[in-house]
DNA sequence: CCATCTTCCTTCGAAATCGAAGATATGGCG
DNA sequence: CGCCATATCTTCGATTTCGAAGGAAGATGG
């Protein structure tokens, strides 16, 4: 699984290569070396040959796939009140995905132990017999220090500050463990749906506002908080104090939580960001206006970042992302104020990976650890 | 010069390795392979052995250096009214640097031909005899499309839009040619002075405001305009229309040109950004207040970007950077409003590479092309 | 249907790379 | 001073990787 062998498996798992010829092109190794190694990998049962692909004008390639029995990954995406949990094969294809209620206010120990137990449960009920678990990972709705796997100064996770999440989760499994910010995972998941786009900004618009950054195809972590845009000061007539102690943070105006609060004051009861989307689709004008305004504010913040980073695409995901006015308003703001060179081929679009993006991202990142 | 050989030369040139042992560690090759290749490189005259280094507790390493006769690079940093020109050896050490007046308003053809002639002149007068020219490069005070080497929509270079600068400069030399935005070159130059700091924002505060971005040790170009912060809208009571057509751009308030205009209105004549620094050092209160305010505005823009990118350091260069109040004000703004995780180990400091940063950056980037 | 081109994959000798062992050189310490 | 620990560099046989040539399988086009 080490070195060159790992590289080849990674290419196949990531869907970047499907045949020996493609592996040779992508890995830079000689075709003959690839053949040798592939033969070994088939021998050890990690790869399987699976029929022929489509010809590109010559002999048809013999398609390669990761063996379904090579292993599974258990991944989770932890939210404030729910968690999505899933099993993936090593190529990142979900075998099963479930959503279960949970409450991060119970604290990090209880929550991590609950995730571990849920993984065991999923494996028992849906894990293919005899296929080993190869890695576990979870997303966290707060900043994670990549060096230590600890949660650092989360704004809405009381009791979690500085808790060694990765260590606790890892204590249940003697395996590679991944703990990462949820927006970062979403970004890693989307990245695979945008081939050819090397630099992405992936916005997570849900109860909060998060953003994951892909630079040159790789997740940019910074010090663990990279992509944070929720505490940017927005231009506003009124004046709101954010939970972080500063004035007029984007999150205080444009997050799902902020919108729900405003709707609540107007006597329109909403429980979760998805309810806002439903209101917008039903044509409730108050909701539409709110969402459009949120999009404008987010878009104005993004203009700065688009000029600075010059991404190839801005991908909008999260519970609010299916509200069409949100994306339109973001588009309008960005295209209006950014430099022509920065917007020339910039695509601004809704998520392609859907609600499982974070789980897919966890799989993609875990794969690197597993095949290291 | 190809492949592994090039990698070893690059490591030596970049100062990342000084002995065979270090080369082995940095390159990942086996010590024996390194020895073989180094012997070859010494044989072809590209490397020379130069005395012994300091022991780290065992046998002393035999220090390796690029041969002074391996080649020279001719580099320039083009400004609005002046150009810095220099010759570097392949390890990026300047052999000679000169500043000459020039005028980009004469148009791209004349300017590029003038640069080429100046390179020839420098070589005649300062080039070591028999040492071949291995590459040429220049910085441009405007956006450069990395794919085509053309200037794209420059705000203050009339007549240059879409001109194939790299092609024109290259027509004089049958060699690798580099054309890059000036702030990007400065960033590439600073990067070598900040070992261990992988992600940098390098601010160029001169007549204009530019910024170069280093992510994971490599220059981030985006679509050619990455790092552009001059047209971010700032919070302001008054209301100024920028040359780009939008309201209240940072550049209209905090660039050297803007400061000079304000000072002019106050009857204080200044010719170039350096004069402002002199006024500040002389304790002229109007100048100090202006510079401090510019720093605050720049700092407020940087807060957004620091939260987003989580750089390891912010480096301030350019003609205004030696004005101490500028950096203090930037520091104050950033440390006040950024997330703790983002500022925990963030360093905000003046340039370490000095006025030749852009030339050094051109050398570093050219080296990659030369040793490709 | 057959010649020809393209692409995929394997074979096999040549070349590069590795890695273990040893030679060389130095600092530290009793 | 002599011995040991450490680090650098080289030697040499074993292993891996390369690359040119060729075989296999299919597309294309008369």
UniProtKB/TrEMBL annotation, chains A, B:
Family named by the database record: Belongs to the ROK (NagC/XylR) family.
Name the UniProt record assigns to this protein: Transcriptional regulator
User: Cross-referenced Pfam families, in alphabetical order?
Assistant: ROK
Q: Which domain of life is it from?
A: Bacteria
């Amino acid at each position: 699984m080490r070195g060159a062998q790992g590289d080849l498996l990674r290419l196949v798992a990531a869907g970047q290569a499907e045949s020996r010829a493609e592996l040779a092109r992508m890995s830079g190794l000689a075709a003959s070396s690839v053949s040798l190694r592939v033969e070994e990998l088939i021998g050890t049962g990690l790869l399987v040959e699976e029929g022929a692909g489509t010809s590109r004008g010559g002999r048809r390639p013999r398609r390669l796939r990761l063996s379904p029995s090579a292993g599974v990954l258990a991944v989770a995406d932890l939210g404030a009140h729910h968690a999505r949990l899933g099993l993936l094969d090593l190529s990142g294809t979900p075998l099963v995905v479930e959503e279960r209620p949970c409450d991060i206010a119970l604290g990090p120990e209880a929550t991590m132990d609950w995730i571990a137990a849920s993984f065991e449960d999923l494996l028992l009920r849906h894990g293919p017999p005899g296929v080993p678990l190869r890695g576990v990972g979870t997303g966290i709705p707060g900043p994670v220090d990549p060096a230590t796997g600890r949660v650092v100064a989360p704004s809405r996770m009381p009791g979690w500050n500085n808790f060694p999440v990765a260590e606790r989760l890892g204590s249940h499994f003697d395996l590679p463990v991944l703990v990462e910010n949820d927006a970062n995972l979403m970004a890693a998941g989307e990245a695979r749906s945008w081939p050819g786009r090397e630099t992405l900004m992936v916005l997570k618009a849900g109860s909060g506002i998060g953003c994951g950054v892909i630079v040159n195809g790789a997740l940019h972590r910074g010090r663990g908080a990279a992509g944070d845009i929720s505490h940017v000061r927005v231009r506003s007539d009124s004046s709101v104090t954010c939970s972080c102690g500063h004035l007029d943070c984007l999150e205080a105006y444009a997050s799902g939580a902020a919108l729900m609060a405003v709707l609540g004051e107007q006597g329109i009861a909403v429980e979760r960001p998805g309810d806002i989307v439903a209101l917008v689709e039903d044509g409730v004008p108050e909701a539409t206006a709110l969402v459009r305004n949120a999009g404008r504010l987010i878009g104005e913040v993004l203009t700065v970042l688009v000029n600075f980073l010059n991404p190839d695409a801005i991908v909008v995901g999260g519970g609010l992302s299916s509200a069409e006015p949100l994306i339109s308003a973001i588009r309008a703001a960005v295209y209006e104020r950014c430099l022509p060179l920065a917007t020339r081929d910039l695509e601004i679009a809704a998520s392609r990976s859907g609600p499982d993006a974070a789980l897919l991202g966890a799989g993609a990142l875990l794969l690197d650890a597993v095949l290291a």
